[in-house]
Queue: 4 jobs
Job 1
Amino acid sequence: MKFNHSNIKKAKKYLDQNKCIAVPTETVYGLAANAYSTTAVKKIFKLKKRPKSNPLIVHYSKLSNLKKDCLINDKFQKLYKKFCPGPITFVLKLKKNSKISKIVTSNNKTLAIRFPKHKILKNLLKILNYPLAAPSANVSTRLSSVKAEDVKEEFGNKISYILDGGKSKVGIESSILSLVNFPKILRLGGLEVSKIEKVLNQKIKIDINPLKNIAPGQSKLHYSPGIPIRMNIIKPKKDEAFILIKKRTDKSPNYYYLCKNKNLKEAAKNLYSCLRKIKNKGYKSIAVQKIKNIGMGKTINDRLYRASNK
Ligand code: AMP
Ligand code: MG
């Protein structure tokens, strides 16, 4: 991992020129640009080939800066105290006088925001005069990036700069919680829903139906390695890559393990690198063992299910 203050300054220089760069976060790498500049954020959509109807998450390091752009409420404050910075994105009401580019919100009156935990990104945000719009650093529908090399694989020389922050610690996207009306989960992610429920002391509706397509993280094909995936498999086909939740004694070169010991958090962290490795080895299809649908297992199954759609 190569990073120092001069890299952070370099990143600022590119961003101040309205360029789009890759930044490390604890969830996955982001493709970042000045959220107040329409010129800058347009570049994100172009690079990602992202539909204009899919709004971006905006990243902050200070609550006082967020308050310039969004209306906050009691529920937000409780969750902010407990989980920020961390892998949770909130959808809040946008303030009328906010400077956020309309392109960021797809012209909606709500804004998705997050306080990332990665030290390098936090230091970068502190020296900027604007928040950063940053969706995941991958071409639309493809696998998210969890290290600088993945970003290079996605965009090659099309990207001005990659701020290297090592491998993402959570390794899977943030959970998205809408607090616009009643609390509602729009995307399962790096923070378990039960933990949010405990703080708010209420059951939270999970609204991730891919057919309704409110948040495009919910769209049918997403997070895809570009080859077919079959789920809940006991015995894989010959020549098929087989993803297992933990190491087994019967070995095969086609077996790939998500973790040593059935730890679902560790499995989530390794999911995208495992899928990328399999894709790059040239397999034609992937089989996945059944993964328990509890805690982070729910997020893993959600990603695999969307990646398996045609
Ligand atoms: P990405 O950063 O690429 O993982 O994508 C950001 C996710 O946040 C997408 O699923 C968006 O649809 C979702 N999102 C961003 N802004 C909003 C919003 N205002 N309301 C609902 N979802 C949003
Ligand atoms: Mg994404």
Job 2
Amino acid sequence: MNLEAAKKRWKRLTAEIRGHDELYYQLAEPAISDEAYDALLRELTDLEEVHPTLRRPDSPSQTVRESRDDNFPPYEHPSPMLSLSNTYSFDELDAFFDRVARGLEDDTPQAWSVEPKVDGVALALHYREGRLHVAVTRGDGKIGDDVSANVHRFINLPAELHEPLSFEVRGEAYMDRSRFTALNAARERSGEEPFANPRNLTTGTLKLLDGRESARRGLSFVAHSVVEHDLGESHHHELERLDALGLPGLPLRKVCMGRDEVVEWIRHLDASRAELPFEIDGAVIKLDKLALRRKLGATSKSPRWGIAFKYAAEKAETTILRIALQVGRTGAVTPIAELEPVQLSGTTVSRATLHNREEIARKDIRQGDRVLVQKAGEIIPQVLEVLKDRRDGSQKPFAFPKKCPACNEPLLHLEDEAAIRCVNPACPAQLYRRLVHFASRGALDIEGLGGKWVSILLEENLIQSLSDLYRLNLESLLKLERMGEKSAANLLAALQVSLKRPWRRKIFALGIRHVGEETARTLARNFPDLNALRTATLEDLMEVSDVGDIVAQAVLDYFQSEALASEISELENLGFFEESEETVERLLQDFKGMTVVITGSLEHFGRNELKDLLSARGAKVTSSVSKKTSLLIAGEAAGSKLSKAAEMGIEIWDEARLLSELNDE
Ligand code: IVH
């Protein structure tokens, strides 16, 4: 491939990878399996290998991408939280052993720690004199979210370590299988959308603002690394020290000598998955001797002394009872196989996605077929293979309907995409999904308005559009059978609150194709109000970094669609877009280029509010004072950051100064 072609491919790949990152980390709705994701990343790395000029510091091959959450204070990791490189085959594992032997200039068998790869959420716990001081998520690897309040409520962390030590331990937060099953069952009973898997539930629980709810759900921690190497000379000593200190350690870990023992234990772990209280997606293989690790070091993304061996997804056999169609928020029609319920990776599976018409044709999937299903990356399972020799003639091929099952309008097969679409924006199925999305957590977060109530409101004809939500009143709500006076009043109050949500969340709530939370934030920064966004041209949109042609076109299409545009004007007439005006992120760039640290407690601003405000004005807000800091904003009772900044001669404002500077505009 020549450089030009490579560049093009690189651009597509990075855009695709970033899209999947967003789906995975922000929306907790992965669209592809880990394996497929790793294949994309691998292609990117290979491409950069051949054309090193493409390898820039912000390439997905060089960065650990995970989102941060504005509701939690940022916390800078003293040393970056890296991840491990992955492999799926023993050949690649051998190549890893060879690399290590070359790096160490020693090809005698080494001691390796082989451990379960916990499919949880990475956490760093900082202990001070035996007590948990701060707990931080990975974030982007450099700065994470301080989620201490929730971690203090973990069910298996001791109140105090057996010795008053200060150090950082890393590991995974997880929800144990039995709790996961019980919680999901309760959710389904109350008509709420169940969590897709324990990992998503863990992410959701860690980010809860209501500590009591988080405690009620009950998360656990398992330790797998010590950051400051003063607990022993090898990894397994460190882990033993952690056990002795009372921290929950990894079960089924073993020190193996040389390649063959490693492979044997990897297989053993795979076979023993069911014994573990958490889900695992592989084994981690790490050099045991810390001195050898130091010799090998790390790349910007992962250490050279360890690797993750990922297991192929679990499979199960079942029958397709029926093929149904599901219409998504943007009209994409996805065929779904309704299955005879079967146990798979610890959860009961009764539906599998069939992706699109081609997939059904290619695999010749019929209703009534015996099939192998697989959970790839813990998303909705997929049909891996049809067991054709089990057919008895009763299986029926599926004729893809020409009309939308929900609105009966003709379905379109657009040339440039695999999906078949219902392009009728008035389609009730799309409307339902749009409403659910509109009210969902990252969007307007309208409490009490989940899928169950959206369908009731639609069925009872109380709403026919997004704007109708704001026309609901007590009288009409009380006519509904299961709606009491209190819930009705709460719902109306929640709707009022939702009007005040920031502009970026409103953009996200509109449900523009390909516009996730991160993209909505970028759009909000660059197009400060509805009119700016609605009148933006393709060029305007593409000028914004992080907005590519796909997103830009989707924004244009959205506002060009007549039905959606009328939905928008209805909302506009209700004042929906004005209410959030005070939080509109204006294009004031008066803090541009400044690196600001906020410390102490402020009277007039919430920490995150101020952070948003400053970021919107071009500042970079960081958590610790360094050479790069240009301004420290110090509230009441500021401590070490204030003295450090003063020592370094950094400009310092108190809250009064901040207020006057902000008011000057
Ligand atoms: S050691 C440099 N050990 O998997 C990272 N990680 O992609 C060293 N994980 O970031 C991590 N189980 O969040 C390690 N037994 C284990 C693990 C484990 C799960 C996670 C961890 C890490 C990621 C690797």
Job 3
Amino acid sequence: MTVNRRRFIQGSAGLSAISAMSLGRAVESSATCVEMSLSAPQIEKPLFIATWPFGKASCEAALQVTQQGGSMVDAIEQGIWVTEADVKNASVGIGGIPNAAGDVELDACIMTGPDHNAGSVGAIQDVLHPISVARMVMEKTPHVMLVGDGAQRFAFDNGVSPTDLLTAEQRKRWQAWQAAESVKKPQIDEDHHDTIAMLGIDTKGDLYGGCSTSGWGYKIPGRIGDSPIIGSGLYVDNQVGAAGATGLGENVMRHCGSFLVVEMMRNGATPTEACEQAVRRIAELDPKNLGNLDINFIALSKQGGFGAAGTSQGFRYSVASPKESRIVSAKAMTEKAIGPEGGNRK
Ligand code: GLY
């Protein structure tokens, strides 16, 4: 897959994208265009956004669920199912890169704005749809998070059937990784990017979100990243907006990244500005410099505006509403490209 290294240019790119849209031929546009359309009355709800181009199929599935009368929670869950079930996706669900012991360990969470409820699972094995287990934790227990064997037992006790998540291809790669010290470098690029975070707003303006990942490839068994941590990989505040993260979880979870993005929106920032301000705040505190953080955020405001920003060139996200379904380039905050050398998972 070719990495899109087009530089984000505030203003001119936005204007050209808008004129392209007005001609009805925009497939991919810049974050500026999105921001400018934030308050525009033509935004149609429900609307879903998700990390990465692979999120497009998930957003479209979520939209379809609502169009067929399903709830927003159903939409987030079933939208994320699409990516979790994609064996070719090496960073979410079945086909995900395993941990150092060769076991695929998954993290997921879900959050509902109207009742500020949440459920999550961490380091769960042998479950095809961790997002559904997160939903069950939210709906069937007084807890927010279950991890490891306990999460798995809970899933099986609640009717989930075991699934072998390690594909033959990932087993072969893991064996090669074990054999060669030189390849012990997790990768992040267009083919190895991680995590689906999905945010949705319904026709009433209520917000929802979900997140699912197999996490850092060849991680130490038991490692849990940002994705299932409420406030880190995902946060939904029904008064203000919602945010989700992708990238190197350790650099998100030490800063409560998604919560931070939402707080920036509370202070008046647009979704893209909020993502950018959160990344800058993280970079100010973090010993790593901006180019080495390898983090990206998407955000959705209470008004239905959306945007994104990340530390490297090449982060894209997906948007679907009754009006359109498209892939958008996020604002990149450095010249560095996402890729095996662009990441920081050493
Ligand atoms: N962002 C996913 C992870 O680091 O696990």
Job 4
Amino acid sequence: MYRSHTCGELRLSDANKQVTLAGWVQTVRKFGAITFVDLRDRYGITQLLFGEELNTALESQPLGREFVLQATGLVTERTSKNANLPTGDIELTVQSFQILNRSVLPPFTIQDDTDGGDDLRMKYRFLDLRRNAVKKNLELRYAVNRAARNYLHENNFMDIETPFLIKSTPEGARDFVVPSRMNPGQFYALPQSPQTFKQLLMVSGYDRYYQIVKCFRDEDLRADRQPEFTQIDCEMAFVEQEDILNMFEGLVKRIFKDVRNIDYTEKVARMSWEEAMWTFGNDKPDIRFGMQLANLKFPAHSFASRAAQLKETAIGAGETGFAVFDNAETVLAIAVPGCSEYTRKQTDELTEWVKRPQIGMQGLVYIKCNADGTYKSSVDKFFNEEKLKQIADKTGAKPGDLVLILAGKEERTRKATSELRLEMGKRLGLRREDEFKLLWVLDFPLFEYAEEDNRWVARHHPFTSPKPDQIDVMIGNNPEIGNADKYLEHPYSNIKANAYDMVLNGNEIGGGSIRIYQRELQEKMFAALGMTPEEALHKFGFLLGAFEYGAPPHGGIAFGFDRLCAILGGSESIRDFIAFPKNNSGRDMMLDAPSTIDDKQFDELQIRLNLK
Ligand code: ASP
């Protein structure tokens, strides 16, 4: 027997018991004739006391950091207790010990505040995983996994595995491909998601499916992405959107409860995509705080229907005498609460902030809504007090607030204002890590128009159904765009998808849709995306065929498992929640992968490199 207890287990009530522990040496502290060792395992740390009698033994076999040590002794009450450690009331007075294995000096300290940099810790990930901070994250990940499985199991979902060596699934990214030795010149694709398989399972009658599954997307790894990541992937038959929303807000609430003991009893808020874009400037709004966007000027042409309702703008169109506003496509503003007393230095700093290349604006206009009801702005020359008030009112500003205004090209300005809102929310402490706000974003456009290719693309994926009452619009119209400038006038630009995203604190944590399940509509969709009937058959013949054998109405969703864990763990980085992640260039630093392969492997695959 290597151990009788773990290093996190012993308490004062165990005093005088003889026990055996095994673990890793975290620290060795010698005080004259006695030595203290902190012994660590997955469960905690226990202090070992080596008395005088063992010191000669220790001298002939000195202990070093990360040695694997087994020690037998008596549990004893400590004279100086450590309230920070669950085992801090006791220590193990060692009677005998054995070094089970030695360790070379680790490249960084295996402690909460380690001295190791990112790259070094990635290279020695197996050592980093010994650290408490990383271990806690993996424990949380496992707790999320268990909560999800329990909930889904209780609701009759079946975990069914689907293959990894498949044919392309279009989720909008590039595929990773795998050459087939047995079929020279042919390739498998790794799944970007199990999308088509889960739909086929619905046709097969497994009406509630789930899988916590790896997905592979060969994307440029900006921000916090991984080329392989995990989804909680689900699909249900005989459901409408409402059924899905209810089932899966239940799932997330259960995860909150089991993992963080949060009772999220309120109904999850819902917002249309248009509303989200108009009032928050993006499709995954952080609704923990207000500071909504005010549209000060038309046209906001991509939101034609809403624009029509908002004829009255605060600054009017093209007549203010202030060229920046007059020449801009869009003018957007937010009212930042309680910041009217910002100094020149502070407003200058904000101006620099919006001019950074990532934000890309030319400048920033502000209006200070003073507590005494007067207004002061950076454009006093162009706007009298009455006009300033009119603009400020449009943003909902109160005395004491600071109105920030951006002007420029519509898309960029919207994005920039949205970023500015998030930044101000962060600076004012309105984005609290311990607050969780869920939101369903609904009614996405089914299609987006790709100007560079002059064609429609699916906003979600090609299997997403239009809203039931718009199926006829889709079937009844030819997707040809004709004059590309006029794509907004094409009936397809108004078709809404039967799709939904779940947003948590400004992050998209899940998304899905009610699917197309009729061959005719699916063919129309492929045609709309520019596929010839032959191409559609070649790529998706199996699915089109399956739809002819009694496909039930169905829909589903997939949650980004890594991201969900990171948010619940209060971290920005999904990497921290993955046991063996890749770095930002998609490399596994530990394995040093990707790497080249042997000539023999190339020969077997009948592949010759043609590096450019
Ligand atoms: N397969 C989709 C995705 O990965 C999710 C879904 O539609 O269920 O985004």
